[in-house]
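[Discussion] Sanity-checking designs against the backbone

I'm trying to build intuition for which residues belong where. Below is a structure token string of 158 positions. I'd appreciate it if someone posts a full sequence so I can compare it with mine line by line.
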């Protein structure tokens, strides 16, 4: 990154039903996201950042939880597969406006390499049926939805 480039990296906890932190979502604002997750820069500083942002202290014991990292299909095409540790990250992709066949073509090699994939913004589950069977997590925005709407959406995604 250039001397004048600014980076804001934060983590947002993801809780389970028992209010335990099971993962973090890494949120990044930078002028050049490509420089942050470049496939060419597999440096120790990247590892240090991941270790710092995926560690929690639970009753005095340091534990690691995975980090969700949002990537775009365009970034993946430009930089290739980022050199990220498979056990520490969950790669998240938005399907908004994505062609189902193109998304499957891009994500299948990552899945086969052992990366955990999360997807969001699934508008029509029938178009992404093949992909939905392969991904590990489907993120759904339930804000403003009734319990019946959430149940209906869940059935469509199963």
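Best answer:
Here's mine. Compare freely.
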């Amino acid at each position: 990154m250039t001397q004048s480039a600014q980076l804001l990296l934060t983590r947002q906890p993801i809780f389970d039903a028992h209010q335990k932190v099971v993962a973090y979502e890494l949120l990044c604002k930078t002028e050049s996201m490509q420089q942050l997750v470049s496939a060419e820069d597999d440096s120790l500083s990247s590892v240090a950042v991941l270790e710092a942002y995926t560690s929690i202290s639970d009753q005095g014991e340091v534990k690691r939880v995975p980090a969700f990292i949002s990537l775009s299909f365009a970034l993946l095409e430009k930089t290739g597969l980022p050199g990220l540790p498979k056990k520490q990250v969950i790669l998240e992709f938005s399907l908004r406006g994505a062609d189902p066949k193109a998304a499957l073509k891009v994500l299948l090699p990552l899945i086969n390499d052992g990366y955990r994939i999360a997807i969001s913004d699934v508008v029509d589950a029938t178009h992404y049926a093949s992909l939905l069977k392969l991904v590990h997590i489907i993120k759904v925005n339930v804000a403003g939805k009734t319990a019946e709407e959430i149940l209906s959406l869940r059935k469509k995604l199963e």
